[in-house]
Amino acid sequence: MASQTGPDQVVTVENPEAPGPFVVVCEHASNAFPARWGDLGLSAGQKAAHIAWDPGALGLAQSLAAGLEAPLVAATVSRLVYDLNRPPQSAGAMAARSELHDIPGNAGLPTADRVARTEAIYLPFHATLRALIARRLAAGQATALVTVHSFTPVYNGHHRAVEFGIIHDADPALARAVLAQAAQLPLISRLNEPYSAADAVTHTLALQATPQGIRNVMLELRNDLIATPEAQQAMGRTLAPLLRAALAEVG
Amino acid sequence: MASQTGPDQVVTVENPEAPGPFVVVCEHASNAFPARWGDLGLSAGQKAAHIAWDPGALGLAQSLAAGLEAPLVAATVSRLVYDLNRPPQSAGAMAARSELHDIPGNAGLPTADRVARTEAIYLPFHATLRALIARRLAAGQATALVTVHSFTPVYNGHHRAVEFGIIHDADPALARAVLAQAAQLPLISRLNEPYSAADAVTHTLALQATPQGIRNVMLELRNDLIATPEAQQAMGRTLAPLLRAALAEVG
């Protein structure tokens, strides 16, 4: 494992030379609030909650990357400091409100701070991912992109029945093939639930896969299903062969 | 003018802080063959010809950028070393043949060389452009992208009647508005001629504008119309107000 670290490091890359046909990405892997940006005025409870990160997603992504022999590109900063799955002009990139919570440190954020976070977090994260993908493509290496997320079972007071969401951007082929494969799982699996591209949640796919013409899909697991390291490991072991089969089908 | 230079510099940025609503890009601005990559076995005539660059495009882009009060991002390396309007996996990124000419230095290019050129040219050029756009978007600055190209009057022995080509990627709005404005010009103007997105010539738009949801258009001028600095200046002065009017129309 080659992992990049440092006080200003916003991204880690595990197994950059891994030979499998996928690149795994986890934009909401971390609920860390580096000193440079402070804790945004959040309570300990808020910093631990799903508004700050996707609980379980990193462990799942690591297990999935292992099963796929894939590089893993993961964030090391909370999505509330910068949401790496949002473009810099969107309100959600540095959200002043998330679900039921105000984010004090993001309220009325000055332009200079928006630009500084974009430069410090968004640009290097996506440049790292872009370079990894471009090197593979230049070398003629088969490459598909899978992003790994989790969602809360209860949102704005409503219970979500869906357990496994499979979301696509402009090219639905891989997502549809994953959905077909998911029929064998004991999970409630749905295409484009609990979100879809219409909710502006496919920025990473749109930025990193669609322009390069590579297959791509966003996976969303309900976070109560991946609440422990053991559950994350098991889910990754379950999903890896399913993704391989889906990709083999669509090419 | 803030211009970046140096032996390994593959991109220049003029007027990065310019306040106008456009960012101007010229991927095929240069027919330079830096020593690092050599001259690819080309004759002096081939290096001066349209296969190596878009003659006149840089002068036009500079005049247009001045008229639009826009930053200009331009390449300083020939498209035959790396074509910045192509993704790294495409044959055209480091073409072994262009129109009627073999490119000896690109024939059977080893994987390591393809990766090295991608890392040295494609990645920094597009990272520079991406950062410039992202900073503007984070600051809430209105931003549209225009790429400036020229095409040869005779291609593969066929004369091209079109004089001004206006080409779009996924979002045709700005291109259509430019076409409507172009009706006032004494030019034969056409949408998606002599190329279109179907010919894979809109990579920069697809990479730098479509995912960010910003308006974008690719301009192609027949190079006999912009053969002198005076003609380039004049064409830029003509097109700048037309682009401003088109953008004002589509928002």
Automatic annotation (TrEMBL), chains A, B:
It comes from the Bacteria. The keyword Nucleotide-binding does not apply. One of its GO terms (molecular function) is hydrolase activity. Pfam families: FGase. Keywords: Hydrolase. Gene3D superfamilies: Zn-dependent exopeptidases. InterPro entries: N-FG_amidohydro, UCP029730. This is N-formylglutamate amidohydrolase. It comes from Phaeovulum veldkampii DSM 11550.
